[in-house]
Amino acid sequence: MKRQGGFTLIELVVVIVILGILAVTAAPKFLNLQSDARASSLQGLKGAMAGAAGIVYGKAAIDGKETASTETDVDGIATKYGYPMAKDTGIAEAVVGLSEDWSSATSGATILVVGFKSDNATAASIVATNCFVTYGEATTVSSGVSTIVTDTGC
Protein backbone atom coordinates (compact mmCIF):
# COMPACT_ATOMS: atom_id res chain seq x y z
CA MET A 1 0.00 0.00 0.00
CA LYS A 2 1.22 3.49 -0.89
CA ARG A 3 1.82 5.96 1.89
CA GLN A 4 -0.30 9.11 1.47
CA GLY A 5 1.63 12.44 1.59
CA GLY A 6 0.41 15.52 3.40
CA PHE A 7 0.86 17.69 6.44
CA THR A 8 0.33 16.50 9.96
CA LEU A 9 -1.73 18.42 12.44
CA ILE A 10 1.41 19.38 14.39
CA GLU A 11 3.04 20.85 11.28
CA LEU A 12 -0.05 22.95 10.56
CA VAL A 13 -0.18 24.24 14.15
CA VAL A 14 3.51 25.20 14.00
CA VAL A 15 2.94 27.17 10.76
CA ILE A 16 -0.07 28.99 12.27
CA VAL A 17 1.96 29.90 15.38
CA ILE A 18 4.81 31.25 13.21
CA LEU A 19 2.34 33.32 11.14
CA GLY A 20 0.82 34.66 14.37
CA ILE A 21 4.23 35.75 15.65
CA LEU A 22 5.00 37.48 12.35
CA ALA A 23 1.62 39.26 12.41
CA VAL A 24 2.19 40.54 15.96
CA THR A 25 5.63 41.92 15.12
CA ALA A 26 4.51 43.50 11.83
CA ALA A 27 1.20 44.98 13.05
CA PRO A 28 2.62 48.07 14.84
CA LYS A 29 4.17 49.24 11.57
CA PHE A 30 0.72 49.45 9.98
CA LEU A 31 -1.21 50.84 12.95
CA ASN A 32 0.11 54.41 12.57
CA LEU A 33 -1.08 54.92 8.99
CA GLN A 34 -3.84 57.38 9.94
CA SER A 35 -1.33 59.79 11.44
CA ASP A 36 0.85 59.60 8.35
CA ALA A 37 -2.17 60.15 6.11
CA ARG A 38 -3.20 63.26 8.05
CA ALA A 39 0.31 64.71 7.88
CA SER A 40 0.43 64.00 4.13
CA SER A 41 -2.94 65.69 3.66
CA LEU A 42 -1.58 68.81 5.33
CA GLN A 43 1.46 68.78 3.04
CA GLY A 44 -0.88 68.52 0.06
CA LEU A 45 -2.95 71.43 1.34
CA LYS A 46 0.21 73.48 1.82
CA GLY A 47 1.17 72.82 -1.80
CA ALA A 48 -2.32 73.72 -3.01
CA MET A 49 -2.23 76.99 -1.07
CA ALA A 50 1.22 77.90 -2.37
CA GLY A 51 0.23 77.03 -5.93
CA ALA A 52 -3.02 78.99 -5.75
CA ALA A 53 -1.19 82.00 -4.29
CA GLY A 54 1.30 81.89 -7.16
CA ILE A 55 -1.44 81.70 -9.79
CA VAL A 56 -3.38 84.57 -8.22
CA TYR A 57 -0.19 86.63 -8.03
CA GLY A 58 0.36 86.00 -11.75
CA LYS A 59 -3.16 87.20 -12.53
CA ALA A 60 -2.65 90.26 -10.31
CA ALA A 61 0.62 91.05 -12.10
CA ILE A 62 -1.08 90.82 -15.48
CA ASP A 63 -3.77 93.22 -14.22
CA GLY A 64 -1.12 95.55 -12.74
CA LYS A 65 -2.40 95.04 -9.17
CA GLU A 66 0.64 93.28 -7.65
CA THR A 67 1.79 96.35 -5.67
CA ALA A 68 -1.60 97.40 -4.23
CA SER A 69 -1.25 97.72 -0.46
CA THR A 70 -5.01 97.75 0.12
CA GLU A 71 -7.54 95.00 -0.50
CA THR A 72 -7.94 94.54 -4.25
CA ASP A 73 -10.19 92.17 -6.19
CA VAL A 74 -8.53 89.83 -8.71
CA ASP A 75 -11.06 87.52 -10.41
CA GLY A 76 -13.25 87.47 -7.29
CA ILE A 77 -10.34 86.84 -4.90
CA ALA A 78 -9.39 89.43 -2.27
CA THR A 79 -5.69 90.22 -2.66
CA LYS A 80 -3.09 92.41 -1.03
CA TYR A 81 0.28 92.98 -2.72
CA GLY A 82 -0.97 90.63 -5.44
CA TYR A 83 -1.37 87.61 -3.15
CA PRO A 84 -4.60 86.19 -1.70
CA MET A 85 -5.49 87.60 1.70
CA ALA A 86 -5.84 85.36 4.77
CA LYS A 87 -9.62 85.22 4.82
CA ASP A 88 -12.59 83.43 3.28
CA THR A 89 -12.73 85.73 0.25
CA GLY A 90 -8.95 85.41 -0.23
CA ILE A 91 -7.01 82.15 -0.07
CA ALA A 92 -10.11 80.13 0.85
CA GLU A 93 -11.68 81.31 -2.41
CA ALA A 94 -8.52 80.61 -4.41
CA VAL A 95 -8.09 76.98 -3.24
CA VAL A 96 -10.91 74.83 -4.62
CA GLY A 97 -12.62 72.85 -1.86
CA LEU A 98 -10.84 74.53 1.06
CA SER A 99 -13.97 75.90 2.68
CA GLU A 100 -15.97 72.68 2.05
CA ASP A 101 -13.38 70.14 3.21
CA TRP A 102 -11.38 72.00 5.87
CA SER A 103 -12.05 74.18 8.90
CA SER A 104 -10.44 77.59 8.86
CA ALA A 105 -10.29 80.55 11.18
CA THR A 106 -8.34 83.77 11.21
CA SER A 107 -5.77 84.45 13.87
CA GLY A 108 -4.84 88.10 13.88
CA ALA A 109 -5.19 90.23 10.78
CA THR A 110 -2.87 88.36 8.44
CA ILE A 111 -2.94 84.66 9.38
CA LEU A 112 -5.42 81.94 8.45
CA VAL A 113 -5.25 78.64 10.32
CA VAL A 114 -6.63 75.59 8.48
CA GLY A 115 -7.26 72.19 10.03
CA PHE A 116 -9.39 69.10 9.54
CA LYS A 117 -13.13 69.69 9.30
CA SER A 118 -14.95 70.18 12.61
CA ASP A 119 -18.01 72.11 13.72
CA ASN A 120 -17.57 75.57 15.29
CA ALA A 121 -13.81 75.59 14.81
CA THR A 122 -11.91 78.58 16.12
CA ALA A 123 -8.27 79.44 15.56
CA ALA A 124 -7.49 78.37 19.13
CA SER A 125 -9.28 75.01 18.77
CA ILE A 126 -7.50 74.28 15.48
CA VAL A 127 -4.09 75.22 16.91
CA ALA A 128 -4.75 73.05 19.96
CA THR A 129 -4.82 69.96 17.71
CA ASN A 130 -1.19 70.53 16.60
CA CYS A 131 -2.32 69.32 13.17
CA PHE A 132 -2.89 72.34 10.90
CA VAL A 133 -1.56 74.61 8.15
CA THR A 134 -0.88 78.28 8.78
CA TYR A 135 -1.21 80.71 5.86
CA GLY A 136 0.35 84.12 6.37
CA GLU A 137 -0.59 86.76 3.83
CA ALA A 138 1.88 89.15 2.21
CA THR A 139 2.67 92.15 4.40
CA THR A 140 4.94 94.03 1.98
CA VAL A 141 5.52 94.12 -1.77
CA SER A 142 8.52 91.80 -1.53
CA SER A 143 7.50 89.53 1.38
CA GLY A 144 5.25 87.03 -0.40
CA VAL A 145 3.12 84.58 1.53
CA SER A 146 4.09 81.89 4.00
CA THR A 147 2.56 78.46 4.47
CA ILE A 148 3.69 76.45 7.48
CA VAL A 149 2.60 72.91 8.38
CA THR A 150 2.34 71.86 12.02
CA ASP A 151 1.85 68.09 12.21
CA THR A 152 3.15 67.10 15.64
CA GLY A 153 -0.37 66.18 16.83
CA CYS A 154 -1.59 64.27 13.80
UniProtKB/TrEMBL annotation:
Keyword Protease: no
UniProt-listed Pfam families: N_methyl
Keyword annotations: Membrane, Transmembrane, Transmembrane helix
Transmembrane segments: 12-31
InterPro entries, sorted: N_methyl_site, Pilin-like
Domain of life: Bacteria
NCBIfam families: IV_pilin_GFxxxE
Entry protein name: MSHA pilin protein MshA
